[in-house]
TrEMBL record:
GO BP field: ubiquitin-dependent protein catabolic process
Chain segments carrying region Disordered: 18-39
Family listed: Belongs to the ubiquitin-conjugating enzyme family.
Protein name as it appears in the record: E2 ubiquitin-conjugating enzyme
UniProt KW keywords: ATP-binding, Nucleotide-binding, Transferase, Ubl conjugation pathway
Pfam families listed in its UniProt record: UQ_con
Residue numbers annotated as active site: 126
GO MF term set: ATP binding; ubiquitin conjugating enzyme activity
First-level EC class: transferase
Residue ranges, compositional bias (Basic and acidic residues): 18-30
UniProt EC number: 2.3.2.23
Length: 221
């Protein structure tokens, strides 16, 4: 009788442990699916492609990468074009994306203090492709190169900084002198730290691998 009771208890314990194991496994799979789903939204997939393109074929004078493991927030730098008043300057920006990207533009701000007709005091940029002229065909590289072009080709008729717009229109020589001597616009040259790119690239590869697991399973099955 005692032996039968002990066996029953062992069976019940094994059954409980097996049930707990199944629950834990299901919860783990659910979490994995949620992580994969978050990484595989249309916006994040597009940003992964943007980042890959930016690393494989970077336009001259710009650099950018997602911040840590958050692909929706980027740090970027624009180098002042050679032989212009901006030459020698390196200017920091941030880009904040939403899940509506690329149907809606990112929010882009200069972190560096800027003196420019189309840049507000808070670093916001008055640029048509970031507003009513946005198109889903634009990617991160296109956004950064457009901003780089805006530095040398401002639109004083749509001023965000009235003083800079007035000086550019009425006394371009003084405007250029202010840019060249404006230490607030100039910081030491640097690029996104290689370790940041390596860390993010590793995360990127893992993301692609997780998303491609069902295809791998089907091809092997």
């Amino acid at each position: 009788m005692e032996v039968a009771l002990t066996l029953k208890r062992v069976e019940e314990r094994c059954e409980r442990e097996e049930q707990q194991s199944r629950i834990a496994k299901q919860e783990g799979m659910t979490k994995s699916k949620k992580v994969t789903a978050r990484m595989s939204t249309p916006a994040r997939k597009r940003l992964m492609r943007d980042f890959k393109r930016l690393q494989q074929d970077p336009p001259a004078g710009i650099s950018g990468a997602p911040h840590d493991n958050n692909i929706m927030f980027w740090n970027a730098v624009i180098f002042g074009p050679d032989d212009t008043p901006w030459d020698g300057g390196t200017f920091k920006l941030t880009l904040q994306f939403t899940e509506d990207y690329p149907n809606k533009p990112p929010t882009v701000r200069f972190v560096s203090r800027m003196f420019h007709p189309n840049i507000y005091a808070d670093g916001s940029i008055c640029l048509d492709i970031l507003q009513n002229q946005w198109s889903p065909i634009y990617d991160v590289a296109a956004v950064l190169t457009s901003i780089q072009s805006l530095l040398c080709d401002p639109n004083p008729n749509s001023p965000a900084n009235s003083e800079a717009a007035r000086m550019f229109s009425e006394n371009k020589r003084e405007y250029n002198r202010k840019l060249r001597s404006g230490k607030s616009n100039r910081i030491s040259r640097y690029r996104i730290h290689p370790d940041e790119i390596v860390l993010f690239t590793s995360w990127l590869v893992i993301g692609y691998w997780l998303n491609d697991m069902p295809n791998r399973a089907n091809s092997n099955g």
